[in-house]
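TICKET: design request
STATUS: open
ATTACHED STRUCTURE:
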Protein backbone atom coordinates (compact mmCIF):
# COMPACT_ATOMS: atom_id res chain seq x y z
CA UNK A 1 0.00 0.00 0.00
CA UNK A 2 1.42 3.33 -1.10
CA UNK A 3 1.64 6.60 0.81
CA UNK A 4 -1.16 8.06 -1.32
CA UNK A 5 -3.46 5.25 -0.16
CA UNK A 6 -2.89 6.17 3.47
CA UNK A 7 -3.48 9.87 2.79
CA UNK A 8 -6.75 9.14 0.99
CA UNK A 9 -7.82 6.79 3.78
CA UNK A 10 -7.27 9.47 6.40
CA UNK A 11 -9.08 12.16 4.39
CA UNK A 12 -12.13 10.01 3.66
CA UNK A 13 -12.49 8.86 7.27
CA UNK A 14 -12.25 12.43 8.59
CA UNK A 15 -14.69 13.66 5.92
CA UNK A 16 -17.24 10.96 6.70
CA UNK A 17 -17.04 11.78 10.38
CA UNK A 18 -17.50 15.48 9.67
CA UNK A 19 -20.42 14.70 7.37
CA UNK A 20 -22.38 12.18 9.42
CA UNK A 21 -21.86 13.45 12.97
CA UNK A 22 -24.33 16.36 12.76
CA UNK A 23 -26.85 14.08 11.02
CA UNK A 24 -26.57 11.56 13.84
CA UNK A 25 -26.87 14.42 16.34
CA UNK A 26 -30.18 15.50 14.85
CA UNK A 27 -31.52 11.94 15.23
CA UNK A 28 -30.34 11.86 18.85
CA UNK A 29 -32.29 15.06 19.54
CA UNK A 30 -35.36 13.72 17.74
CA UNK A 31 -35.45 10.49 19.75
CA UNK A 32 -34.39 12.00 23.06
CA UNK A 33 -30.92 10.51 23.36
CA UNK A 34 -29.61 13.45 25.36
CA UNK A 35 -27.06 13.80 28.13
CA UNK A 36 -28.82 15.79 30.83
CA UNK A 37 -26.89 18.16 33.13
CA UNK A 38 -26.14 16.88 36.63
CA UNK A 39 -23.73 17.37 39.51
CA UNK A 40 -21.06 15.22 37.81
CA UNK A 41 -21.43 16.89 34.40
CA UNK A 42 -19.56 19.88 33.06
CA UNK A 43 -22.25 21.01 30.61
CA UNK A 44 -25.27 23.01 31.68
CA UNK A 45 -27.76 22.07 28.96
CA UNK A 46 -28.84 18.80 27.33
CA UNK A 47 -26.36 17.58 24.70
CA UNK A 48 -27.15 14.95 22.06
CA UNK A 49 -25.45 11.58 22.38
CA UNK A 50 -25.00 8.77 19.81
CA UNK A 51 -21.80 10.33 18.47
CA UNK A 52 -20.42 6.82 18.25
CA UNK A 53 -22.83 6.09 15.40
CA UNK A 54 -21.14 8.76 13.30
CA UNK A 55 -17.74 7.30 14.17
CA UNK A 56 -18.98 3.81 13.27
CA UNK A 57 -20.17 4.99 9.85
CA UNK A 58 -16.90 6.82 9.22
CA UNK A 59 -14.71 3.88 10.24
CA UNK A 60 -16.45 1.11 8.36
CA UNK A 61 -17.60 3.25 5.44
CA UNK A 62 -13.99 4.21 4.79
CA UNK A 63 -12.76 0.62 5.09
CA UNK A 64 -15.39 -0.62 2.64
CA UNK A 65 -14.53 2.10 0.13
CA UNK A 66 -10.77 1.62 0.37
CA UNK A 67 -11.26 -2.10 -0.06
CA UNK A 68 -12.81 -1.29 -3.43
CA UNK A 69 -10.08 1.01 -4.69
CA UNK A 70 -6.91 -0.76 -3.51
CA UNK A 71 -6.23 -4.34 -4.56
CA UNK A 72 -3.70 -5.00 -1.78
CA UNK A 73 -6.09 -3.89 0.94
CA UNK A 74 -8.98 -5.66 -0.78
CA UNK A 75 -7.03 -8.91 -0.51
CA UNK A 76 -6.70 -8.41 3.26
CA UNK A 77 -10.45 -7.92 3.60
CA UNK A 78 -11.36 -10.96 1.49
CA UNK A 79 -12.97 -13.86 3.32
CA UNK A 80 -10.52 -16.24 1.67
CA UNK A 81 -7.42 -14.24 2.61
CA UNK A 82 -4.68 -16.66 3.62
CA UNK A 83 -3.79 -14.86 6.84
CA UNK A 84 -6.82 -12.80 7.79
CA UNK A 85 -9.69 -15.21 7.23
CA UNK A 86 -12.96 -13.61 8.29
CA UNK A 87 -11.17 -11.17 10.64
CA UNK A 88 -12.72 -8.04 9.16
CA UNK A 89 -16.16 -9.63 9.12
CA UNK A 90 -15.73 -10.45 12.79
CA UNK A 91 -14.65 -6.91 13.64
CA UNK A 92 -17.65 -5.52 11.78
CA UNK A 93 -20.18 -7.83 13.46
CA UNK A 94 -18.79 -7.41 16.98
CA UNK A 95 -18.55 -3.63 16.53
CA UNK A 96 -22.25 -3.57 15.66
CA UNK A 97 -22.96 -5.36 18.95
CA UNK A 98 -20.87 -2.84 20.89
CA UNK A 99 -22.43 0.16 19.15
CA UNK A 100 -26.00 -1.06 19.57
CA UNK A 101 -25.31 -1.74 23.25
CA UNK A 102 -24.14 1.85 23.59
CA UNK A 103 -27.08 3.24 21.63
CA UNK A 104 -29.56 1.54 23.94
CA UNK A 105 -27.63 2.65 27.02
CA UNK A 106 -27.54 6.25 25.77
CA UNK A 107 -31.28 6.21 25.12
CA UNK A 108 -32.78 4.18 27.95
CA UNK A 109 -29.94 3.24 30.25
CA UNK A 110 -28.58 -0.26 30.71
CA UNK A 111 -27.76 -1.75 34.11
CA UNK A 112 -23.99 -2.23 34.60
CA UNK A 113 -24.13 -6.03 34.67
CA UNK A 114 -26.02 -6.14 31.37
CA UNK A 115 -23.54 -3.70 29.85
CA UNK A 116 -20.63 -5.86 31.00
CA UNK A 117 -22.30 -8.96 29.59
CA UNK A 118 -22.74 -7.22 26.23
CA UNK A 119 -19.05 -6.30 26.17
CA UNK A 120 -18.07 -9.90 26.93
CA UNK A 121 -20.36 -11.15 24.15
CA UNK A 122 -18.70 -8.77 21.67
CA UNK A 123 -15.27 -10.05 22.73
CA UNK A 124 -16.42 -13.66 22.36
CA UNK A 125 -17.80 -12.93 18.89
CA UNK A 126 -14.51 -11.53 17.61
CA UNK A 127 -12.69 -14.55 18.99
CA UNK A 128 -15.01 -16.83 17.04
CA UNK A 129 -13.63 -15.16 13.92
CA UNK A 130 -10.06 -16.01 14.93
CA UNK A 131 -8.82 -12.85 16.65
CA UNK A 132 -7.35 -13.44 20.10
CA UNK A 133 -4.18 -13.08 22.14
CA UNK A 134 -2.57 -16.43 21.45
CA UNK A 135 0.75 -15.78 23.17
CA UNK A 136 2.84 -13.29 25.12
CA UNK A 137 6.44 -12.22 24.91
CA UNK A 138 8.48 -11.75 28.06
CA UNK A 139 9.57 -8.08 28.12
CA UNK A 140 13.20 -7.45 27.10
CA UNK A 141 13.83 -11.11 26.26
CA UNK A 142 13.40 -13.27 23.17
CA UNK A 143 11.10 -15.64 25.06
CA UNK A 144 7.60 -16.10 23.64
CA UNK A 145 5.02 -18.09 25.57
CA UNK A 146 2.13 -19.65 23.68
CA UNK A 147 -0.93 -19.60 25.89
CA UNK A 148 -3.35 -22.46 26.55
CA UNK A 149 -6.68 -21.92 24.84
CA UNK A 150 -8.66 -21.13 27.99
CA UNK A 151 -6.01 -18.62 29.13
CA UNK A 152 -6.00 -17.04 25.66
CA UNK A 153 -9.77 -16.63 25.74
CA UNK A 154 -9.81 -15.18 29.24
CA UNK A 155 -6.97 -12.74 28.53
CA UNK A 156 -8.56 -11.55 25.28
CA UNK A 157 -11.87 -10.89 27.02
CA UNK A 158 -10.17 -9.00 29.85
CA UNK A 159 -8.05 -7.04 27.37
CA UNK A 160 -10.96 -5.92 25.18
CA UNK A 161 -13.36 -5.24 28.06
CA UNK A 162 -10.59 -3.34 29.82
CA UNK A 163 -9.97 -1.11 26.81
CA UNK A 164 -13.69 -0.42 26.38
CA UNK A 165 -14.13 0.64 29.98
CA UNK A 166 -10.89 2.63 30.12
CA UNK A 167 -12.05 4.86 27.28
CA UNK A 168 -15.57 4.97 28.71
CA UNK A 169 -14.30 6.16 32.10
CA UNK A 170 -12.14 8.94 30.69
CA UNK A 171 -14.98 10.26 28.53
CA UNK A 172 -15.98 12.81 31.14
CA UNK A 173 -14.84 16.06 29.51
CA UNK A 174 -15.78 17.36 26.07
CA UNK A 175 -13.24 16.17 23.52
CA UNK A 176 -11.03 14.25 25.95
CA UNK A 177 -11.62 10.63 24.92
CA UNK A 178 -11.84 11.55 21.23
CA UNK A 179 -8.60 13.53 21.25
CA UNK A 180 -6.71 10.88 23.21
CA UNK A 181 -7.93 8.26 20.76
CA UNK A 182 -6.88 10.34 17.75
CA UNK A 183 -3.35 10.74 19.12
CA UNK A 184 -3.01 7.15 20.31
CA UNK A 185 -4.29 5.64 17.06
CA UNK A 186 -1.87 7.78 15.04
CA UNK A 187 0.97 6.52 17.25
CA UNK A 188 -0.21 2.97 16.58
CA UNK A 189 -0.17 3.75 12.86
CA UNK A 190 3.45 4.91 13.06
CA UNK A 191 4.51 1.87 15.08
CA UNK A 192 2.85 -0.56 12.68
CA UNK A 193 4.70 1.03 9.76
CA UNK A 194 7.97 0.70 11.65
CA UNK A 195 7.19 -2.95 12.35
CA UNK A 196 6.34 -3.67 8.71
CA UNK A 197 9.81 -2.53 7.66
CA UNK A 198 11.56 -5.12 9.83
CA UNK A 199 9.18 -8.05 9.37
CA UNK A 200 9.89 -10.96 7.03
CA UNK A 201 6.93 -13.18 7.90
CA UNK A 202 4.13 -12.64 5.30
CA UNK A 203 1.43 -13.36 7.90
CA UNK A 204 2.82 -10.74 10.28
CA UNK A 205 3.16 -8.22 7.46
CA UNK A 206 -0.48 -8.71 6.44
CA UNK A 207 -1.67 -8.29 10.02
CA UNK A 208 0.39 -5.14 10.38
CA UNK A 209 -0.92 -3.70 7.12
CA UNK A 210 -4.47 -4.28 8.30
CA UNK A 211 -3.69 -2.77 11.71
CA UNK A 212 -2.09 0.27 10.09
CA UNK A 213 -5.21 1.03 8.04
CA UNK A 214 -7.55 0.47 10.98
CA UNK A 215 -5.37 2.76 13.12
CA UNK A 216 -5.40 5.53 10.54
CA UNK A 217 -9.15 5.23 9.94
CA UNK A 218 -9.73 5.46 13.68
CA UNK A 219 -7.49 8.53 13.85
CA UNK A 220 -9.28 10.30 10.99
CA UNK A 221 -12.74 9.44 12.30
CA UNK A 222 -11.83 10.67 15.79
CA UNK A 223 -10.40 13.94 14.49
CA UNK A 224 -13.48 14.56 12.35
CA UNK A 225 -15.71 13.99 15.35
CA UNK A 226 -13.51 16.22 17.50
CA UNK A 227 -14.64 19.17 15.38
CA UNK A 228 -18.05 18.89 17.09
CA UNK A 229 -16.87 17.47 20.41
CA UNK A 230 -14.08 19.83 21.48
CA UNK A 231 -15.21 22.19 24.29
CA UNK A 232 -17.89 23.35 24.25
CA UNK A 233 -19.12 20.06 22.76
CA UNK A 234 -22.13 20.10 20.46
CA UNK A 235 -22.48 16.31 20.54
CA UNK A 236 -21.06 13.61 22.80
CA UNK A 237 -19.67 10.19 22.02
CA UNK A 238 -22.02 8.58 24.47
CA UNK A 239 -21.48 4.95 25.37
CA UNK A 240 -22.06 4.11 21.71
CA UNK A 241 -18.84 5.96 20.93
CA UNK A 242 -16.61 5.44 23.96
CA UNK A 243 -17.22 1.68 23.98
CA UNK A 244 -16.67 1.45 20.23
CA UNK A 245 -13.44 3.45 20.32
CA UNK A 246 -12.12 1.36 23.20
CA UNK A 247 -13.11 -1.87 21.47
CA UNK A 248 -11.39 -0.91 18.21
CA UNK A 249 -8.30 0.24 20.12
CA UNK A 250 -8.09 -3.16 21.78
CA UNK A 251 -8.46 -4.87 18.42
CA UNK A 252 -5.65 -2.76 16.92
CA UNK A 253 -3.27 -3.84 19.65
CA UNK A 254 -4.09 -7.49 19.05
CA UNK A 255 -3.81 -7.33 15.25
CA UNK A 256 -0.70 -5.17 15.34
CA UNK A 257 1.64 -4.77 18.26
CA UNK A 258 0.69 -7.87 20.22
CA UNK A 259 1.35 -10.03 17.17
CA UNK A 260 4.80 -8.71 16.40
CA UNK A 261 6.61 -6.77 19.10
CA UNK A 262 7.20 -9.85 21.24
CA UNK A 263 9.71 -8.17 23.54
CA UNK A 264 7.27 -5.36 24.29
CA UNK A 265 4.02 -7.27 24.00
CA UNK A 266 2.04 -5.58 26.76
CA UNK A 267 4.22 -2.58 27.47
CA UNK A 268 3.72 -0.63 24.22
CA UNK A 269 -0.12 -0.48 24.27
CA UNK A 270 -0.16 0.26 27.99
CA UNK A 271 2.29 3.15 27.53
CA UNK A 272 0.36 4.65 24.61
CA UNK A 273 -2.93 4.46 26.51
CA UNK A 274 -1.24 5.29 29.80
CA UNK A 275 -3.74 7.99 30.79
CA UNK A 276 -7.03 6.07 30.37
CA UNK A 277 -5.54 2.77 31.55
CA UNK A 278 -3.93 4.42 34.55
CA UNK A 279 -7.12 6.26 35.40
CA UNK A 280 -9.14 3.03 35.19
CA UNK A 281 -6.60 1.15 37.31
CA UNK A 282 -6.52 3.74 40.08
CA UNK A 283 -10.31 3.99 39.96
CA UNK A 284 -10.47 0.26 40.62
CA UNK A 285 -7.94 0.43 43.47
CA UNK A 286 -9.66 3.49 44.96
CA UNK A 287 -13.03 1.78 45.10
CA UNK A 288 -11.56 -1.37 46.61
CA UNK A 289 -9.98 0.59 49.46
CA UNK A 290 -13.10 2.69 49.96
CA UNK A 291 -15.35 -0.39 49.81
CA UNK A 292 -17.41 1.21 47.05
CA UNK A 293 -19.15 -0.50 44.17
CA UNK A 294 -17.19 -0.70 40.92
CA UNK A 295 -20.38 0.19 39.10
CA UNK A 296 -21.05 3.46 40.93
CA UNK A 297 -19.81 6.67 39.29
CA UNK A 298 -17.64 9.13 41.20
CA UNK A 299 -15.83 12.45 40.67
CA UNK A 300 -12.29 11.28 41.39
CA UNK A 301 -11.14 10.53 37.86
CA UNK A 302 -8.11 12.42 36.57
CA UNK A 303 -10.20 14.88 34.56
CA UNK A 304 -12.49 15.57 37.51
CA UNK A 305 -9.51 16.28 39.75
CA UNK A 306 -8.09 18.73 37.23
CA UNK A 307 -11.46 20.40 36.72
CA UNK A 308 -12.62 20.72 40.31
CA UNK A 309 -9.43 20.68 42.37
CA UNK A 310 -7.07 22.52 40.03
CA UNK A 311 -9.83 24.76 38.73
CA UNK A 312 -8.89 24.22 35.09
CA UNK A 313 -11.45 24.60 32.32
CA UNK A 314 -12.27 21.76 29.93
CA UNK A 315 -9.97 23.01 27.15
CA UNK A 316 -7.00 23.24 29.48
CA UNK A 317 -7.66 19.71 30.79
CA UNK A 318 -7.88 18.38 27.23
CA UNK A 319 -4.69 20.03 26.03
CA UNK A 320 -2.67 18.87 29.04
CA UNK A 321 -3.82 15.27 28.70
CA UNK A 322 -3.31 15.38 24.92
CA UNK A 323 0.26 16.47 25.58
CA UNK A 324 0.83 13.64 28.05
CA UNK A 325 -0.62 11.12 25.60
CA UNK A 326 1.60 12.41 22.81
CA UNK A 327 4.67 12.27 25.04
CA UNK A 328 3.86 8.70 26.05
CA UNK A 329 3.34 7.88 22.38
CA UNK A 330 6.76 9.22 21.47
CA UNK A 331 8.27 7.09 24.22
CA UNK A 332 6.52 4.04 22.77
CA UNK A 333 7.87 4.85 19.29
CA UNK A 334 11.41 5.20 20.65
CA UNK A 335 11.10 1.89 22.48
CA UNK A 336 9.91 0.24 19.29
CA UNK A 337 12.86 1.57 17.29
CA UNK A 338 15.39 0.54 19.94
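STATUS: resolved
RESOLUTION: sequence designed for all positions
ATTACHED SEQUENCE:
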Amino acid sequence: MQFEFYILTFIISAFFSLLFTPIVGSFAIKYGALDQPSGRKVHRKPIPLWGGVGVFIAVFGTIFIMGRVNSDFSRLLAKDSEYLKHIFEGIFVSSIVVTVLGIVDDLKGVIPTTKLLGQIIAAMIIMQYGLKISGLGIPFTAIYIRLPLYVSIALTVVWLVGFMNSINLIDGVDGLATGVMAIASFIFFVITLLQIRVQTDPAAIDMLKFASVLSLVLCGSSLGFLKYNFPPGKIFLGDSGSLLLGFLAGIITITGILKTAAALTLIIPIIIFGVPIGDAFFSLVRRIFRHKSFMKADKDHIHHRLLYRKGWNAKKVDIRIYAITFALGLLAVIMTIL
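CLOSING REMARK: The longest strand covers residues 135-137. The mean pLDDT is 87.
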